[in-house]
Structure formats: C-alpha cells, structure tokens
C-alpha cells in the first residue's frame, strides 16, 4: 500500500510540474511572439518612392528594381502597386476615401484583400511646403520650427485618418509605414543647390562641409519621421515602421560615397541600388515576422539579379561570371546587392 501511495504521489508531482511548465511556456510564448500567417497578397500605397518609376534605369526594368515588385516576385506573392507620384498625406487620404484620383484604380478592394500594406508618404509634405524656408529657420539661433511643426501637425492629422480608414477596410492586414531617408549626399546639387550652400555659409556656417549639409537636413528629416514615431507611441500597434532612414544613414556613415549611389540624380528618389536596399530591408522584416520564407526568397532574389546581369550587361565591361559567383556565395541580402551594384556601378546597361 505504501508503495502504491508513493507511486501515486510521484505521479501527481511529476504531472503538476509538467502542467505548470506547460502553462508557463504557453504564457511566455503568447506574450512575446506575435503570431502571423504567411502573406500572399502585398499592396503599396503612397508617393513616387513606392511607385518606383522615377529613377529606374532602364524603365523596362521597373519590376526588377521597384521594391514592391521585387518583394512580390521573389516571394511569389500577388502584388499591386497603387502608389501615386507627388502624393502628400492629404492626397493619399483622399485617394483611399475615393475622393481623388478617380481615374486611377479604386483602392478599396485591394486594401480589403491585402495581407501586407506598405506605405511611403510624408516626403512631399516637406518638399511641397517651403522646404528652404524651414531649412533656413532651423539654422537660426535659436532654431525656429513653428512653421514646420504647423505643416507636420496637419500631416499627423492626415496620418490618423489614413490609418483609421485602412483599418476600417481591413483590420487584419500588417500595415507598414516607411521612414524617409536623407537625400543630401556629398556634392548633390538639385535640392541642396550651390546657391543654397553658399547662402548657408554666408549667413550661418562659414566653414560648412558636405557632411554638415547632410546633418542640417537630417534635423528636418528626423522631425518629419517623428510624425510616425509619435503616432505609434500614442497608438501602440497601429502599424509597423520600416526604418529606411536608419538603413540609408548607416550605409552613408560606413561609406561616405555610398549615399550618392543610393539616390537618383534628381536628389530625391532612390536609385536602382537604393530601391534594392529598401526591397531587401522590407524582405528581411517580412522574414523576421514570419510573413515570408527566407530560403526560397533568397534563392529567387539571387536568381533575379543574375538574370539581370545577363540581360542588361552582356557585351559590356561587367565581368558577369565572377559577379554571378559572388552572388551565389552571398550569405545575406546586402552581400547580393554589393556584388551586383559594385560590378555594374557607372556602367550603362544595354538598351531596351
């Protein structure tokens, strides 16, 4: 009898420990990991950065450089790009409300069907609203942001309405807003013009360097991007942030010549390489959040770039075989990009 009692006691203790451990494990998993189903449909909204037309060279390669299309292809997603060049937050809001761009695809159904919605916006809220005036005011002692903050206040209100309208149409989709990068690379002349540079040196910073001009513009960019971060702080889990600005800034700080390669010669839009960086940043985010599978996507991305090499650079000075070998040996997306764009930098592709 004592043996039976001891055995039962042992079984009860063991079962209790097992159940307790199972409960603890389940609770921790649920509280720290957000479960997501793999995506199958991805949608882009917003401005010309997401639209992916301006700066693509040659234009026939848009689907292989524009980041929405690249991510769609390598994951074999269903994808649709409804971004509209020149859009400010007010235009995007009116578009998803059906009040503007009525000649374009109605976004209601694509929004309701999407698993992932990626949005690039905010840039034109700055560029189309007295950029130089705000830059000038930011350089004064003390700096003044009154006018700029008034613009951003409207951006914030529009953002709030955009998020609410999208959530009204689709409460389940993963919603991603991307930050805006700083496009002022050393020697850029379209946005930070020579006249603007000289004005700054004459009135504020006599010895201003190229890096100083980058840092000056970063003040405005950080304030702009903070619209997203402030909104998310006030509304946790409203959306995700893809920090393109941080990625571009890191690449710039690691290599002072890199930013020029990431920006189109209009000093605003991303270049082919810049779009590839955004595509891979988005892809890595999707993989890290269980919305995409690394092995197949990585293989497909390598294959996409290798096919481009053959199609665009046969009979040029690009060493196609050695570049393909570097791509094949790459362990991460950045290494694929480095191999492809280092080899093709400043070499004109074959004509369409």
Which structural traits does this protein have?
single chain, 352 residues, alpha/beta, Rossmann fold, 2 domains, five-stranded parallel sheet, 5 strands, 59% helix, globular
Number of helices: 17
Strand content: 5-15%
Largest sheet: 5 strands, parallel
Helix residue percentage: 55-70%
- State the shape: globular
Radius of gyration, in Å, reads 24 Å
Please give the order of strands in the largest beta sheet: 2-1-3-4-5
CATH fold name of the largest domain, please? Rossmann fold
Distance N to C terminus: 90 Å
Structural class: alpha/beta
Q: How many structural domains in the coordinates?
A: 2
From the 3D coordinates, which CATH architecture of the largest domain would you assign? Answer: 3-Layer(aba) Sandwich
Mean pLDDT: 90
Low-confidence stretches: 1-35
Task: Give the CATH H-level superfamily of the largest domain.
Answer: SGNH hydrolase
CATH class of the largest domain: Alpha Beta
Order of helices and strands: HEHHHEHHEHHHEHHEHHHHHH
What is the total tally of β strands? 5
How would you characterize the overall build of this protein?
The chain is of the alpha/beta class. The protein has 17 helices and five strands. The chain has a five-stranded parallel beta sheet, sandwiched between helices. Helix 15 (294-313) runs antiparallel to helix 16. The chain is globular, with a radius of gyration of 24 Å. The termini are far apart. The model is unreliable at 1-35 (pLDDT under 50).
């Amino acid at each position: 009898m004592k043996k039976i009692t001891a055995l039962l006691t042992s079984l009860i203790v063991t079962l209790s420990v097992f159940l307790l451990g199972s409960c603890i494990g389940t609770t921790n998993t649920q509280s720290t990991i957000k479960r997501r189903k793999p995506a199958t449909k991805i949608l882009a909204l917003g401005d010309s950065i997401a639209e992916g037309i301006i700066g693509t060279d040659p234009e026939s390669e848009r689907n292989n450089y524009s980041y929405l299309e690249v991510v769609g292809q390598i994951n074999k997603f269903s994808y649709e790009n409804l971004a509209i060049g020149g859009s400010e937050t007010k235009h995007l809001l009116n578009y998803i409300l059906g009040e503007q761009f009525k000649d374009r695809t109605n976004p209601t159904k694509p929004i309701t069907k999407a698993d992932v919605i990626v949005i690039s916006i905010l840039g034109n809220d700055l560029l189309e609203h007295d950029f130089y005036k705000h830059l000038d005011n930011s350089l004064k002692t003390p700096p003044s942001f009154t006018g700029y903050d008034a613009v951003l206040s409207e951006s914030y209100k529009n953002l709030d309405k955009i998020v609410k309208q999208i959530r009204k149409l689709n409460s389940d989709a993963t919603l991603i807003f991307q930050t805006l990068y700083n496009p002022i690379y050393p020697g850029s002349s379209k946005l930070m013009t020579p006249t603007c540079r000289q004005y700054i040196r004459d009135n504020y910073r006599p010895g201003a360097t190229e890096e100083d001009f980058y840092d000056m513009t970063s003040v405005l960019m950080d304030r702009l991007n903070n619209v997203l971060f402030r909104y998310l702080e006030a509304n946790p889990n409203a959306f995700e942030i893809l920090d393109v600005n941080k990625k571009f800034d890191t690449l710039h700080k690691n290599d002072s010549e890199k930013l020029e390669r990431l920006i189109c010669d209009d000093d605003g839009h991303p270049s082919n390489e810049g779009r590839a960086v955004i595509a891979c940043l988005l892809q890595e985010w999707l993989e890290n959040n269980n919305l995409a599978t690394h092995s197949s996507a990585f293989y497909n991305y390598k294959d996409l770039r290798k096919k481009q090499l053959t199609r665009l650079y046969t009979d040029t000075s690009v060493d196609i075989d050695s570049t393909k070998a570097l791509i094949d040996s790459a362990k991460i997306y950045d290494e694929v990009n480095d191999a492809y764009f280092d080899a093709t930098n400043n070499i004109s592709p074959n004509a369409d």
